[in-house]
Amino acid sequence: MLKFTFNILFLFIFLPLSQLNANPVDTVDTYHDRLLASITQSAGKSDQARFTALAPAMDAAFDFESMIKTAAGTYWSKASDSARQALLAAFRRVSIATYADQFAGVKDGRFVIDGSRTGPRGLKLVDSRLKTADEDVSLTYVVRNRGGNWLIIDVLLQGGISELALRASEYASTLKNGGTEALTQTLNAQAASLLAN
Fold first, then answer.
1. What global pTM score does this model have?
2. pLDDT at position 8 over 50
3. CA-CA distances (angstroms) from residue 138 to 24, 85, 141, 161, 165?
4. What gap in Å lies between CA 162 and CA 1, rounded to an integer?
């Protein structure tokens, strides 16, 4: 269950202006609704089918570009445009694939939003919980306004453990040894493995 708890956290479709996320709570609430609907839609199907069902919900809610830029640090700023785009695509793919794999056995889960608060540097924190038959997991979404659209840039487990910080730590040795190209290959391989079933 602990493996599921960590992996569900980690957990681009370009929407018309009328569908932009108007405020942080709307972003998270809409994401939760679409996530649960996609799980129901793809129940009993392959990981690839769940990936396809989940992708629109995650694309609309997460700022994958800001997330991988932060996780890769100076390696991102030094990379070419083509290398950045390849890494972004791989990061997006493995993120959605992780959810597709981990949500395969989830039944009767529901999300509850407990409220929102102001964070540092204009960020907003949306406190929520994932309730299943086995546990009640506290999730705090870190949400930032990007061009009038509120997007998720991190998730905190039990109010304090940063998923993005965990990813940055995980990626550090690969980036040091092979740069963004090596990380891109690693993430694509991880995604392929997750979607093999």
1. 0.86
2. no
3. 17, 33, 10, 11, 17
4. 19
